[in-house]
Specification:
With 235 residues, this protein is α/β, with parallel strands linked by helices. The protein is 39% helix and 27% strand. It is globular.
């Protein structure tokens, strides 16, 4: 056992013959969070997909609560407590909000769905609405709520604030803080809004060409923000 909720060690992953992620490592204890930053195309989403089992890991190790999972299928990782909220949200457009949530609970209702409504009261108000009729912010809430119904110890979030109004971002930020503080959920957050991501997570790393170019606590990153901005700027 490593004593860590999530451990990523020298992970290499990609598509076809192309390496996208090349030797990334980090560790997170229960309730900790990490912001993954970088320009478009440097491997942020591929890293989350590799951790969640949607992209094969060519070498390296991924451990969940001390158990190596890099060879496990995606659904097996979910059953072990690791869930991805993808950038595409993957809401079922023709199902109602409640039906979308029931998909994650094996069609069961009860306390699980009620806990989702407690976290996002707006969804309860829209429970009979089709997923395709929701706003972007409501769809993101639904995507996160559905992921939480799998009871994850580790939650991977890919661009959760993309295209959302500031008031919705504030609501989601509050929900993520609450999940960490009250449920001890460990998080890996990919987000283009670097300052917000670092504030939420408390630590971060910056990818450059699939490798970690800079990493540390929020304080360290702020002290070296000029270097962070250089790594995030478009050449």
């Amino acid at each position: 056992m490593t004593g860590k909720a999530l451990s990523v060690t020298e992970v290499v992953a990609g598509y076809g013959h192309t390496k996208i992620v090349n030797g990334v490592s980090f560790e997170l204890a229960a309730g900790e969070a990490l912001a993954v930053l970088g320009r478009n195309g440097v491997g942020k989403t591929t890293l989350l997909r590799a951790i969640s089992g949607r992209v094969d890991v060519r070498s390296g190790r991924i451990s969940l609560n001390g158990e190596e999972i890099q060879l496990s299928r995606a659904y097996q990782r979910v059953s072990k407590g690791l869930t991805l909220v993808p950038q595409e949200r993957e809401v079922f457009a023709t199902l109602t909000v409640e039906e979308n949530l029931r998909v994650a609970t094996g069609n069961a209702g009860g306390p699980g769905i009620e806990s989702a409504y407690e976290l996002f009261p707006q969804l309860k108000e829209r429970r009979a609405n089709k997923g395709g009729a929701l706003s972007g912010g409501e769809q993101q809430m639904l995507s996160i709520a559905r992921a939480l119904l799998t009871d994850p110890g580790v939650l991977l979030l890919d661009e959760p604030f993309e295209g959302l109004a500031p008031v919705i971002v504030e609501q989601l930020t509050g929900a993520l803080h609450m999940l960490r503080e009250t449920r001890g959920v460990t998080m890996v957050l990919v987000e283009q809004h670097a300052d917000l991501a670092v504030e939420i997570a408390g630590s971060g790393l910056v990818l450059e060409r699939g490798q970690v170019a800079l990493a540390g606590s929020a304080g360290f990153l702020r002290e070296n923000w000029h270097d962070v901005e250089k790594l995030l700027s478009v050449a």
